[in-house]
């Protein structure tokens, strides 16, 4: 077990919240605990998926589990349930403090043109041509 992996107590809380497998057949080579530890390792370190250590399973399998659960809302439901459990035990303090010094507007929000800063290419301006009249044509001849 690596330093950031789930402890047995954490796994005992998390395991009942995971979706049940639907497929029968050969048991998986990589346990869900290993794959979830791989997902947690990747999100904690911020490295690319391909750099996940081999002890967590193949990176493609770890990424596949992460994306499937992200698409079907499994991560959101796990988070909501864990949050409800912690709130029921009184572990979450819902006091909020908003510090406006960290809320900064983007530089373009401070009076920039609404249509962007790029100028469109304009056609080259040519001096207007003089209209030729019958009297001008006789004078030129």
TrEMBL record:
Domain of life, per lineage: Bacteria
Domain Insertion element IS402-like: 6-79
Residue stretches of biased makeup (Basic residues): 110-123
Segments for region (Disordered): 110-141
Biased composition (Low complexity): 129-141
Pfam families: DUF4096 (PF13340)
Record PANTHER family: BLL5188 PROTEIN (PTHR46637:SF1), TIS1421-TRANSPOSASE PROTEIN A (PTHR46637)
Protein name as catalogued: Transposase
Lineage, uppermost ranks: Bacteria, Bacillati, Actinomycetota, Actinomycetes, Kitasatosporales
């Amino acid at each position: 077990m690596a330093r950031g992996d789930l402890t047995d107590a954490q796994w005992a809380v998390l395991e009942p919240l995971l979706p049940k497998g639907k497929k029968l057949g050969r048991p998986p080579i990589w346990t869900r605990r290993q794959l979830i530890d791989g997902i947690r390792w990747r999100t904690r370190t911020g490295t690319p998926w391909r750099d996940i250590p081999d002890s967590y399973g193949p990176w493609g399998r770890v990424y596949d589990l992460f994306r499937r659960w992200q698409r079907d809302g499994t991560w959101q439901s796990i988070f909501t349930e864990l949050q409800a459990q912690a709130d029921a035990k009184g572990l979450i303090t819902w006091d909020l403090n908003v510090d406006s010094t960290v809320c900064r507007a983007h530089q373009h929000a401070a009076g920039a043109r609404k249509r962007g800063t790029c100028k469109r290419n304009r056609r080259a301006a040519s001096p207007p041509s003089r209209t030729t009249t019958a009297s001008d044509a006789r004078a030129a001849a």
